[in-house]
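Deadline looming. Please check this record:
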Amino acid sequence: MERLDRMDWINAGLAALSEAGLMAVRVELLAKRLNITKGSFYWHFSRREELLSAMLVEWERAQTTSVVATVEGRGGSPHERLLHLSDSLANLDLQLEAAMRSWAASDFDVCRVLERVDSARLVYLQSIIESAGVPTGHAKARARLVYFALIGELTSGGADWFHQYRETMDMNRTLILSWPQV
């Protein structure tokens, strides 16, 4: 029998959350999913809440911190960085993003993590827009429009939402980064 590590459990928890919501993140169900006994879980975590906390940390790292690092690593003009950021959405588990928002609606601690993540994402997006010469107040307003349009598209549940969002971003990227206003 293959020995699993802590990250295997975290990834299984995130996958279950993404596919079926928080109720699917139960030790028994995850053990069955991983084809292993519950004892393996308790080798890595003392209780379910510890796994849930680790899942939040990994989600933030994978879906925010590493995305920013990748975009910054690719570099380029503000226009290119905004394009890289849009491209990176295709690699994210956007169903997991929606599941996190659903979880946050019923858990104050998760809501605080989500607020921190939203804030970090907005600050980063604002920094890209400001680097194009857009004044801070306008850059902040534009970042909010772009980001919350993404969240709205994502949570709308439309099957083709990403294509529509990407198309909208492609048409509006120049407007978002232009100053003075066009």
